[in-house]
Amino acid sequence: MADKVLMKGNEAIAEAAILAGCRHYFGYPITPQTEIAAYMAKRMPKIGGTFLQAESEIAAINMVYGAASVGMRVMTSSSSPGVSLKSEGISYMAGSDLPGLIVNVQRGGPGLGGIQPSQSDYFQATKGGGHGDYHLIVIAPDSVQEMADYTVKAFDLADKYRMPVMILADGTMGQMMEPVSLDLDIKPAPEKPWATTGTGCERKHNIINSLSLVPEELEKLNFERFEKYAYIQQNEVMYEEYMMEDAETVIVAFGIAARVSKNAITAARKEGIKVGLIRPITLWPFPTEVISKAADKAKRFISVELSMGQMIEDVKLAVNGKADVELCNRAGGMIPSPEQVLEAIKNGGAK
Amino acid sequence: MTKQILIAGFGGQGILFAGKFLAYKGLTEDKQVSWLPSYGPEMRGGTASCSVILSDEPVGSPIVSNPDVLIAMNIPSLDKYEDSVVPGGVIIADSALIDRHVKRTDVTAIEIPATTLASENNMPTLANMIITGKLLEILDGFNEESIRAALGKVISAKHADMLEINLKALEIGSKL
Amino acid sequence: MVVFDKPKSLLDVSMHYCPGCTHGIVHRLVAEAIDELGIEGRTVGIAPVGCSVMAYNYFACDMIEAAHGRAPAVATGVKRSNPDGLVVFTYQGDGDLASIGMAETVHAAARNENITIIFINNAIYGMTGGQMAPTSLPGQVTQTSPYGRDVKACGFPVRVSEMLATLDGPEYITRVAVNNVKNVKEAGKAIKKAFQNQIDGKGFSLVEVISSCPTNWGMTPQKALQWIDEKMIPYYPLGVYKDRSAESKEDK
Hints:
By secondary structure, chain B is of the alpha/beta class. Chain B has helices at about 15-30, 75-80, 115-120, 125-140, 145-155, 165-175; strands spanning about 1-10, 30-35, 45-55, 70, 90-95, 110. In chain C, helix 1 (about 25-35) crosses helix 7 and helix 3 (about 95-100) crosses helix 4.
């Protein structure tokens, strides 16, 4: 373990992004993710990169849009209210098929809400957020190591599929320190012949654009994009199964909720209760198939969330009536305790 | 074995720093560790706390709600967290700032005037490390090698001259 | 003998602009500047939302379509990606630049972002059919100010060049017009200078171009050009509002 360093989740994201070749960061301060900006402000000037504190989250995401157009590995980060502001730009990136990383270190909402950890931007992240038919690949790390690993992975996926990718973390993940190895799986970015790098008077001009005024053509673009999404759903789902072999009760939880749930599962197992965990790592694409299969055997599912119950809708769709689906949750910046989850395992959560 | 530690006090007392030191020390000893601060407005003068977990197993939830050890460096912290300590656990309180005794009888209560000791030893900002020294002694004794290694990580290069005095503060605490 | 030639940087496609609209003139001036400076191969243009939304189809250089008002932020991202290699310009109307995109405009100027902005001020929202713009004149009748712009209810027009010139950031702020041959020639010079400044690393250069919108002003093209002289220029005087390099020369 000698090669491990202690880092905050936010710092791990920033350092991993740099290691992945990201040299352009545009952001705007907001708690609890500001360490990312601070880290970038310190490091970028020393490695020939760009750190720019934009005038707003709206400007920041559009700077990302610009740098992505030139083919750069580029990112921004924010927390819930700021991500709402970025939603316009994210929709434009999706519509222009631009790769880029958006980090959302969630806090409680709606509105200005609070600053404590939350998972209540699940709908926003996985169902759109901005306008129009589009998806982001949404990755939910549950440790500082995963914050680093999946930041690298996010850049790879963004480039591979030419689409924006979101890391959906929360205040706990951003603020906590854990040992992290920075020996990461770095792959070079692919060629980007579509980028607006200047024609050099040697090729036809490239256009980065999401405008298409002929509905037949725009429909075709949407169909094509959704063929890509279908491929991603087949090939890029990530999840973890924990003590699932004989599980009669299945907890579905991501991020900090999964960490808390593991404590509860350990305690429940000591009492002989057969309970396991499916932890979606990609929230989009959602691990529908593995949950559906588990529902052939398990009697009940409990969705543990730091929200009023958002992921539970996807769990219900996956379970498709084959088992009961219950909710165990806290909201507004509160985190369920292992005891609360254990109680839900023993005596049922809210239906 | 897993130790769940909660350190709480005023912002500015070095609560987060003491927690970081413990986490780094765990890391140098090949333990699984996590460190989670309270964050927000309390960073600026209100109450601050941090959760530290040291374990031989992968750490589940990083949130310490029922600590094995509570370090309370002011009255609000003792009031708030005293009841949450597991039976048989340990409470270390800074008796220089807390004018009441620990009420729990099912825990080991250690009351030391850390802030007074810090002033007397010309290290007024290091009450946190004196009290942490006591914790080290309870946990696994005073191992100077791993303490030095951890201090080297947690003290930035800019303040490297602070290492020795931090070590001394820990030592004072461990001998109480 | 060639008496008229299309600039190389302008593609040979038909434009969607209304008859008598001056966008075509300004497009040509921009393309001429790019040609004369020999930078077509390393220029990236940013199109706005508004009448010139499809400018990306007209310029031969690489083009990016930005969200409404965000062109200066997009340009910032592009320029910072390759500060020495790329020449970046935005082409924006008054609604885009001075209303929804005012923050992006002001902050790009304050940062002295090394980009070139071509700002078309025709005192109206053209694309959406003639609504009041931040630059519509007091009393001007539009679809959303049918009784004339009432400054008590909807405030006064924004003089963008004057306002930006108060900032320490920008290098070059100028206002030109394209309503007669002399003014068109001046406008061409200003636009070329705005690109040259960027090539020289001098920073933020904005050329405000007073333009006409005969369709939405409800005038013939000729009458619209007269209206520029009679109404627009008195409110928006032409001239150089800031030229840091020239000023510092004078100081010496």
